[in-house]
């Protein structure tokens, strides 16, 4: 059972996250952040991060260019995490039966939010003609209200009244095990699908060597990290048998645990610096060859 204060906090967060995504852009409107906040409110941070991270990877290659709307994976992460924790639904099943359908459905609320803000846009135009700065400022701030309600109201009603319906759907799915297994498999495939969408629109063919390098370095550092972890565990066990003052002076137990990510970060910084220096040497010009089908060229970002 979801408590009233949990519903209130998640509703307020849902209202804020879309405004943050459109203005401040502090990543508070991302699915992984939504999973983190919802997991924190519901008391199960692991479930929240797993669902939020899965949906983050799912929409990794999806953007809102121009006035286009995309699926609302953030609200999907909120509802999937809340119902998964409160009703004991498996995370993979919650993603496919709750998060993805909700994310797709709330696309229409996104369109509704965009339409209603035009009312305040016209009021701002009128205030500009009158040189009414206070009116411009006031209507600009009021324009955030439809955006906030487009997320807050669906999340509130779903959390307040949708628990029995969600549980009924999940129970119906579980009666047919093959359906549940298929949905679970689909949920596990969503991050891979997100990566595929991202690679489809990036200029991969022209930078295939970078992709191969990143894959190779990650694979090598993962293997290296496994050996370093074993070495660190062995040394920690050895130090544990020593007197406390001697062990503290050595301080060797946890020195290797961050090696993998540090190595990848260093390589990434190196490649970024190389790219930056090369871009300073070459004048910006339109490509002389036709772009790859469906790819976004560098000068289009």
From TrEMBL:
GO molecular function ontology, one term from the record: transferase activity
Keyword Disulfide bond in record: no
Transmembrane region(s): 33-60, 140-162, 182-202, 214-239, 259-276
Alphabetical list of InterPro entries matching this protein: GatZ_KbaZ_carbometab, PTS_IIC_man
Broad class of enzyme this protein falls into: transferase
Topology term for the membrane: Multi-pass membrane protein
Entry GO CC: plasma membrane
Keywords: Cell membrane, Membrane, Phosphotransferase system, Sugar transport, Transferase, Transmembrane, Transmembrane helix, Transport
PROSITE patterns linked: PTS_EIIC_TYPE_4
Keyword Nuclease in record: no
GO annotation, biological process: phosphoenolpyruvate-dependent sugar phosphotransferase system
Localization per record: Cell membrane
EC number: 2.7.1.69
Major location (coarse): membrane
Superkingdom of the organism of origin: Bacteria
Entry protein name: PTS system sorbose-specific iic component
Lineage summary: Bacteria, Bacillati, Bacillota, Bacilli, Lactobacillales
């Amino acid at each position: 059972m979801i408590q009233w204060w949990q519903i209130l906090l998640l509703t307020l967060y849902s209202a804020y996250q879309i405004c943050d995504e459109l203005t401040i852009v502090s990543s508070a409107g991302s699915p992984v952040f939504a999973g983190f906040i919802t997991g924190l409110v519901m008391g199960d941070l692991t479930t929240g991060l797993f669902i939020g991270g899965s949906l983050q990877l799912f929409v990794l290659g999806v953007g809102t260019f121009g006035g286009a709307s995309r699926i609302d994976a953030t609200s999907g992460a909120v509802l999937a995490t809340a119902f998964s924790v409160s009703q004991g639904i498996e995370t993979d099943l919650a993603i496919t039966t709750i998060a993805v359908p909700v994310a797709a459905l709330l696309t229409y609320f996104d369109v509704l939010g965009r339409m209603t803000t035009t009312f305040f846009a016209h009021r701002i135009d009128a205030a500009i003609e009158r040189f009414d700065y206070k009116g411009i400022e006031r209507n600009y701030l009021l324009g955030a209200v439809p955006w906030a309600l487009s997320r807050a109201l669906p999340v509130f009603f779903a959390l307040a009244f949708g628990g029995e319906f969600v549980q009924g759907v999940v129970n119906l799915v579980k009666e047919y095990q093959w359906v549940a297994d298929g949905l679970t498999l689909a949920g596990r495939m969503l991050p891979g699908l997100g990566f595929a969408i991202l690679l489809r629109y990036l200029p991969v063919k022209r930078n295939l060597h970078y992709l191969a390098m990143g894959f190779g370095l990650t694979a090598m550092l993962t293997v290296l990290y496994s050996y370093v972890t074993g070495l660190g565990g062995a040394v920690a066990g050895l130090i544990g048998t020593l007197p406390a003052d001697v062990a503290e002076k050595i301080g060797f137990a946890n020195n290797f645990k961050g090696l993998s990510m540090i190595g990848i970060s260093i390589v990434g910084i190196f490649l970024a610096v190389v790219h930056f220096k090369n871009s300073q040497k070459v004048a910006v010009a339109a490509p002389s060859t036709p772009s790859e089908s469906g790819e976004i060229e560098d000068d289009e970002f």
